[in-house]
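Entry for the shared binder. Reason: the reviewer on the internal report wants the predicted structure included alongside the sequence.
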Amino acid sequence: MTQPLHDRAPWRRVLATLVATAFIAASTFAHSAAATRDFIWKISGKQNVVYLVGSVHMLSKDFYPLGPAFDNAFKESDLLVEELDLGEATSGDAGFALLSHAMLPEDQSLEGVLSPATYDQVSRHLANLGVPIEPLKRLKPWMLAVTFEELEWQKAGYDPDLGLDKHFYDRAQAEGKAVQGFETAEFQLSLFDGMPMDQQDRMLADTLKDLDTEINNVNRMADAWKAGDALAVERIVLPDLQQDPAMYKRLLVDRNHTWLPQLEALFARRGHAFVVVGAAHLLGPDGLLALLKAKGYAVDQM
């Protein structure tokens, strides 16, 4: 029997819902024709409209085509705003930044920074995969956790190239729409690289513990997301994140408050903006929907 989602470590939902870059693993959802709403909101100001989308960053081909609300809102918009500009995220500079953040210093290795129990977990998992541990000993624990998670999703048929962020970025490029990001790839990497080593150790151990059940556990959120049931998604996602108040503040609350003035600036534009961020950023009392309502904007799910 799988663990209840609210009892599991917050790293599972962090990886699944908060990070938009292609090298961060995320939740995937199956297409359902029964949906009556989509995970997109029309935010109306005094002069303009912003469409706000709760994203999933790694999908299977079965998820497409998306609901018509996504397509209609995107057609009406002349600007795509995402957590970061994916053009920057796939540049050579971003690749160098990933390596610099993901590698341990030359005088350190996994065996020296991990607890004996976690290192043993890693060794056994790699042995089962038939992969030698030596080439991976310089990876930081957070990056190894992400690598293991992404491999599981790819084995199950999911692809970051089919994620919602990538889908709309590619459409914007093809249709000549402007693209901008709230954050840089360097900043998003620092969110994980800045974790103390004991937190990275726990993150890696929890990832290995849950790999076998993760895909099954995400099905509840899949159904809720596809049905546009924001309350159900909130009940699945936020309790895990809130188990660690410091990380909840760092990864969700602080970023939402940083993005809010950037969102508000979009209402002063002539054209409509289409904003795509991780679904967890929209939810709960600290989510963007609540913050925008408190500012007096009309918030309507499509």
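Summary line for the report: The chain has 14 helices and six strands.
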